[in-house]
Every structure is written in structure tokens, then in C-alpha cells.
Design a protein that fits this description.
4-stranded antiparallel β-sheet; 7-stranded parallel β-sheet; alpha/beta
Amino acid sequence: MTPRPSRLTASVLALSLAAALLPFPAGAAPRPAAPRADSVVVQFADGTISSADIDVLSGAGAETSTLVGHERGRALARVRRGDSAEDVARRLGRSRGVRWAIPNLPLHALSLPVPPNDPYYANPIGGNAAQRSYLGDAGSYPYSIDLEPAWRQAFAAPDRGIDLLRPGATLALVDTGYTPTAETPDGVFVPVYNYVAGNTDTSDDAGHGTMVGNVMAAKTNNGAGIAGVQYAAPSRVLVYKALDANGTGSTDNVISAVRSAADHGAKVINLSLGGSAYDASGNPDTALQQAWDDTVAYAASKGAVVVAASGNENAAVDFPAAAKGALAVGAIDPATGVRSAFSNFGPQLALVAPGEHVLLYGSGGSMQVGSGTSFASPMVAASIGLLRTLLPKANPSVITSAVLTACRDLGPAGLDPSYGNGELDVWAAYRRLMERFPTQPPLAVSVAATSGFSATLAWRALPGSDVVYHYGLLGGPIYSTTATSAQLRVGGDGVYDAVVSASASDMFSNAPASVGFTIATGHPGLTMQRLAGPDRYATAAAVSRSSYPTGAPTVVVASGEDFPDALSAGVLAAAYRGPLLLSRRYSLPQATADEIGRLHPSRVVVIGGVPALSSAVQSSLTRLVPGTVRISGADRYETAEKVAIAVRAASGGSIASATVVVASGEDFPDALAASPMAAAAGHPILLTRSASLPAATARALGEAGARRALVIGGPPAVSPAVAAALPAPVRIAGADRYATSRAVADYAVAAGILDRGELGVATGRTFPDALAGGVAMARLRGPIVLGDAPTASFDAWLARIGDACSKVDVFGGDAAVSSPFATHVLTALRGL
């Protein structure tokens, strides 16, 4: 072999083949339609099914002739032709004596199906093999990395899987950077440092790092794009930009990035980059080799495994892959199992993985095909990360040994310079670890006591390091503790099932344990549902998923950063029978884009002018849904006027009872509190200044033919002079924003617009959660009240509602509406 001259830069190892980086034809893989249900499942609170209960089923739209009764008062029944399971379940959920009712949707094992539903995972695209041909199930694809059985055990089996409630192994990507795409999971890729520019902007200006990162951890089972090797592992990927727009970077920067990643807790570091370790005369550069050896040794001392691409010159293994202690990864053709013609080889090669015709998702947002050891290396790195997440306290060398000894032998028998130990076999490595590490004994759970609306669970301690127990009601929120007992609070009488599981950092988990208990206090059942995401945009998407599980024809999008234009948008969303989603001013949040993709609307309506939502946001929406339009005026008052006109058009040209709602345009709480009532009744929300009626609002009153105005808020919000200028004004107000929201709820219930069967709760400090929640509550015909802390007046109001309420919907995460306060609402509703 002819030695190569020294290269002082680390160059990207993406092979330039004729088939590389070819865009897929548009529309090649249509997204699967969301499943629909034709029956409902109902749980009656008293644990029995009486003749009166059958009448309730019939009245809600179920075909009682198809009724199938189950244990503890659970029933299954088809819905009548022409009705939907979602609407029947919603009606049943508000019925007295019903604990819960849900559409009987199809389910996969647990919550993560294998294979995932990403279209490019299973479907050949444009003459290229699907991802499944090199990732999944060696029984069908003999030269795949056999990842599907490992996924099935990790994410869909009841035991010896990954604990999704604990942090996963941290990975690191040292490359050209990473730019988020539609395939980027929320919170997974964490920018750390840009060594090229000396700042923290790790955006990818070459595209290589984004493709490598998406091989590792693309969003999976989202009905779009590709699957990432990590699937749903609760891991992070630290991003270091050490290479520039040309894919070139200095050895010093890469070494610095590796050491920093190790210092920041990375357990696996992927290097799809490399350079020669020979001087200009072709002699080994011993100093450079020593530098790489020391760097890999430093990472190992911190518990990190360095995985590196071997190179693409059909020559000796590049550095850092050839460094002592690194795992050098070569490439094979997944169709034949033969070493790729470009793949570097030598005694340092540790193993191989598929590296030809790999499906990729780049920073430009298009599907591509690439070949090179650059794309074999992240398959290995992410697979090791998956295995390390299973057993966080296991010695890294034990995990690495399991991977190498489980490799599928290719080429000459045993270790050889062309294939190393052979091809990565993730499932075989997983099985070796199951043989090597013990499984926790079964968990036995009992109900130690019940008191009021609480049950105390108890279990014996299980062996292992860092043992954590997860507990909760079946189908409800899950909590964690290190203790061997826990208290669960329920909302009312009924039969309940509790589930407890355990996990350790050095043992495999056993199957969860369950135990049933009964609460009998004389109060009907009361449940709570929290609709929340990691931010306001994801919360609005969560609300949308709950309200529109099978899609919606129209989506309304408003600003999540400022309230004025958005205040009137909820009524329009309800008129269009679609959700209200939120956007940043200058960029469309990924959570919003994903939800629009799931809903498959034919129209998107943007509320507000360019200062509220930029042209760039509208362009992003138009790319998703060509039928995107904007409704805006010169200011918030004119925007509300134009929204009112759109509401009238959506209602067939008439506004019910010619009533309008008028609220302050200078603050948000009053309009938000009125949103469910206004949306349910079809009353447009118009905005006003406190001291003067805007011209646009006066015009809108005439355009609506308004004969009555519901004035929301006291004189500080809408002055007596402004109220007097409105047609037949009726003021609805309380002492503050919280009391006003309750006064609006009382008015709407007394008027027969809403009922008290279901109650929404949102923070009164900010507007976004209540904005999206108001549309949802209008659909449920329930009010939304603002609350942030217990008060005597709020408790008295809740106690007055009492047993009439059977469900509470909390909008926003714990930072918005704290769990103790949410629990207090349940307790106060039952007068406890």
C-alpha cells in the first residue's frame, strides 16, 4: 500500500458517488391516514352496568344492541351510523355515572410500534432500498444491523427495556454542525460550541453534520421522513461544530471538541471525519498518532467511547479512527454484505456497518441518498448509545465488548483487516447483555390503605443501583419516587387500577405490577387531564391533538408572542371546526408544523399582520398547506373587525342572536375567559380601548347587525362611557381577572351556552395556554377559568359547582398550573 502524504486538516468522509445526495421525487411516500374508531369503551364509576347505564349509552349515540360488558363496569359498544366515536365518547364523558369514555382506537404494543411508521423506513424510494433493508430484522435482511428486534425489546416489551422516564446516555456529534429539520426531535440536539467561529452557533453550513445527526437520532414513528437509530431513547446529542462549510477543520479543534464532549458527560462520541497520520515523506507521524491516542484515552477516562469513520480512500484507516481505543467503523453494501470499494481497512478496523445508499435527511429539508463511512459510523455510535441507556451504570468496556463479540462475521473467519470483528448486530449485542446482567425480581404491590379520595400503595424494595419506582393510575400521569410507598389521589368514587414499575441503572427491569382498589365516598367520579408540552407552541399542539384526533379541515394560526391579534381568533377557529395553533413572529415552531402535518388541513388562516407573524412564517405555512390565507387589519381593533366578518361568513351569513362580545384590547384575561362562551355561541369578540371605542369596532358592530353586547370586565377595562355606546350592553365582571373568568362561566351556564360537566383551568399570568384551551373548551361546551393559587372565593365557587363537574382539563405544564394547585381544584370541587 502506498503511504499517503500528511493532511493537516480533518476532512469529511462523505464519498462522492454518482448516486450520492439525490433528492427523492416529491410525493413518493404519502403519509398514512390517521386511524378512526367505530366503537367506544366506557367505564362506569360504580363498577357495574345497570339498565340506566344502558339508557345513557343509547342517549349518547351508542348501539346498545352491540354492547359487550367487561369486568368492573367497563363496556364496549358500536356507535350509530353517521355519528363519530369521538363525539359519542365526548357525550358519554359528560354523563353522570361515567368515569371515562374513549374511542376504541387500534393500539400497538405499548406506545411505540415496531417497525415505526416513517414512510422511508419501510418503502423503497426512487429505486433506492428502504431503511429497513439495512436497519431492521436480519431474518428478512441478512446484512442489516438487526435493529428491529432490539427496538421491540427496548420500547415495546413489558420487561428488560429502556426506562423512558430516566435520562438516556448522552451522545456527541463532532462535525460540520447540526441544523434542526422537520426530523429533529424536541430537545434532543443541544448546541455546545462552534470551534470554527468561536461562538455557540453550531448551525450546519455544509449539511454533512445534519445528515449524520439524523442517522443517529431523527424523529421516529412520526409518519414522516426517516427513522433514527435512537428511536425514542431519552438521550441528548451534544453538537460541536469543528468543521467549516467546506467540511474541513483543524486537528486542534476536533481534539478540543472531543475532550469537551467527554467533560460534558458524553458517553458516545461520533467522529465522521478524519485525516492521515503520515508525514510528507510517507512515514508515520508518531507525534500526531500519539495526540490522537491521548485524546481517545482522555475520553475513555471520562467514560466515553469514541466511534469514528475509517475513511473513504480504499486505503489504511484514517485517524482518529486508527487511534488506540477508538472504534474504527468501515462500510459494507447492505445488499451483499461485501466491503464497500471505498472503505478504508487495516488492523485497526473494529467493525463494519451499512454505508452505501443510506437514506438521509439534510439541513435543506429534503430526503437524500448518501454513501460513505460517514454514515456507517453514526449507526454504530447511536446503537452503542441505545445499549448504554439500557444499563447506565454498566462498565463501558462491557458494552463495547458485547457489541464487538456479537458482530456478524463477514469475510475470512474471525478478526480480519477488511471487516474487523464483522458487521454490527444490535440484537445479538442486546441478548449478550441480557445474559450478562441480572433482571430485577418481580415487583409485588399492595394497597396499604384508602382514606377519602386517596389510596396508599406499598411494595418491597428491589435490588440494584439507583432504583427508581414509577407509579400512577392506569392511563393517567406517572410519578417517580425512590421510596417503597406512595399516595395516589383520585377525583371521586369508582374502581381504579394502579401501576408500579421499577428500574435500576445496573440491572434489567421486570414487568410492571398492577393492583386494583375501590374508592366509595358518595361522590361521583372526577378526572383530570393535563394538556401540555415543553413550551406554549407544543401545548397548543397537544390541545389540538386531543380535540381533533383524526384531523381538521382548517387550522387558525396566531401569534404566541403577543396577544392583541390572537384574542379574537378562537371564535373563528371554532367556526371553522379546527384548532388554534401558535407561531413565533419570525419562524414557525416545529411543534406547530408537525401538528399541521398530522391534521392534513386544506386551509390555514393566519391572524394578524406581518408585525405579528412575518412573511417568512406565512411562507413556511404555505409550503405545508398551499391554501394559506391571512386576515389582518391596520391594528388589533381592525383585525378583530375582519375576523368578525369571517366568523359571520363561516356561520352562513348570520350571527346567532346578533350578540357580540366586547373586551379590552389592551390586556388579555377578559377576552380569554369569554372565548369558550363566544366560540360555542358563535359570538364574535370585538376589542376596545378602555376610554374610547375604536372606529373599527364601531364599524364591526354595524356590520354584525349587533343588537346586544356582552361587556367583559369591570370599568377599568371597559369604561362606562364605552359601554354606553354599545347596543344593549350587559356587563359581566368580577373583582379581578380571576373573578371575571368565573362570572363569565356562570353567565354562560345560566344562558345555556355552556355546562358545568367539564371545566377548563389555565393560568391568568400569560395568554397562550388559555388561548388554545378556549377553543377546546368551546368544543366540549365547558367554561375555562383562570387560576394560579387557591383563594377562598375560588374554593367557594368550586364547591358550588360540586358534583356537577366530572372532569377538569388543565392547560399548560407545571410551570403554568402547578400540580399542587391542580390537585387542589379537584379537592375543592368535592368540598374536601
